[in-house]
Amino acid sequence: MATRLLLSLLRGGNKGARIAQACRRETALFEILVQEKGWADFKTLADVFIQQVVKHELECQFPGIGSRVYGEENNEFTNKLGETITVEVKQNEEETRKLLSHVLDGNQNAARLLAECAHTSIDEASLDEASLKKLQDCELNVDELGIWIDPIDATSQYVKGIDNAIPNKHGIYTRGLECVTVLIGAYDILTGIPVMGVVFQPFYRKISNSVWEPRHLWGVVYNDFSLNNFESTFKMNQAKRHGDETFLVVGSGNDSSTRHLLADKSSLKLVLAAGAGYKCLCVVEGLADAFLYHDDSCYKWDTCATHALLRCVDGGMACLRDALQDKSIDLTKHEVKYNKASNSSWCNAGGILAYTSSEHSLACVDSLSKVLRC
User: Fold this and answer.
1) 130 CB burial (10 A radius; 0-12, 13-18, 19+)
2) Residue closest to 338 by CA, chosen among 295, 315, 313, 305
């Protein structure tokens, strides 16, 4: 079942990435897909539709799993006539096109494009033969799993559409479409521990004015089984850091507590970046040593997928507040869980600290703990 589930997540994520690209390709089209839902926050039809596409993909393979699929967005969207419409993937492309046409005020071209993305079959050759063979040894029971989806993380960067950003000297983007991710994570509903993650970057590398090359990272970690497609990149980037006495902590520009605490700390360099998913990827790939976030405004859908990837390299994601209160600094005792809400909210209450098992990352966490306890 692990193989079928991973392939389903990859198909859903791939379709999601294609929808995100398609919606951004035409400026005139994109403008009718976006509605503001709060201060500097937007809800796009791409958000809503991608979540429904992933849910539909999973439900087709595992009937009944849809009731355990959760995400950032509800599936309602208001068109320009003020009509609130339930967005979903229908049984065939024509029915989906008709529904989307109603949402998009009769824009047939946009509706057709999105419906095609949702119903076009995706090549399953994204897993090599060696991985397929190894996955047979993973005894995941899909009936015991829940799914968290963030259809478009770093939505503000997606809306702004900055396509000429340049990474800093550490290879980290502080802004731009490169920070946008599609996040899908599976967790054990009994323990709350993430066991599988798929992360797509729809705008990984720009090829031409309107064409982007996407990429994806995936990982499976359950009991003693662990398999992923990024560990070689992680080890390569860590090797480049050998002997470097500066610890890179990636954070958010709106996290004033972290900025204040790490100011002028010679061994701890704060690098700002957009999107919780992208910042976690920087740690997953060894570009940064830790991701630190103080506030409660990071949610389960923001972290489930990348948390699974971190576990694949013997790292994890801890509740920052609880970890700092524990003098032993045993982060494994304070891992973020995904099966219970915090005070009726699905936020990661107490903040988060993402890390890996690399020597540099653990030394960074040790330095952070000393600074944060002061």
Assistant:
1) exposed
2) 305
Contact 170, 271 (CB under 8 A): yes
Distance CA 7, CA 4 (A): 5
Sequence-ordered strand ranges (E) for 154-288: 181-188, 194-206, 212-222, 225-228, 247-251, 268-272
Per this entry, what is the length of the chain? 374
Q: How far apart are CA 143 and CA 131, in angstroms?
A: 23
Catalytic residues: 47, 72, 150, 152-153, 155, 302
* Alpha helices (runs of H) in the chain, residue ranges in sequence order: 2-25, 27-31, 45-61, 93-103, 108-119, 129-135, 155-160, 231-240, 256-262, 276-284, 300-312, 320-325, 359-373
| 184, 306, 348, 359 from 196: Cα distances, Å | 8, 9, 19, 24
DSSP 246: P
* This model's pTM is above 0.85: yes
Within 10 A of 38 (CB to CB), how many other CB atoms are there? 7
Positive/negative CA dihedral, 8, 12, 13, 14:
positive
267-315 pLDDT, tens digit each: 889 999 999 999 999 999 999 999 999 888 899 999 999 999 999 999 9
Q: What residue ranges of the chain have pLDDT lower than 70? A: 26-29, 31-43, 123-126, 242, 327-329, 374
Beta strand pairing call for 212-222 and 225-228: antiparallel
82: left (phi over 0), alpha (psi -120 to 50) or beta: left
Q: What is the largest CA-CA distance in the chain?
A: 61
d(CA 38, CA 294): 21
Amino acid at 336: V
Read off the pLDDT of residues 330-350 as tens digits, 9 standing for 90 and up.
788 899 999 988 777 899 999
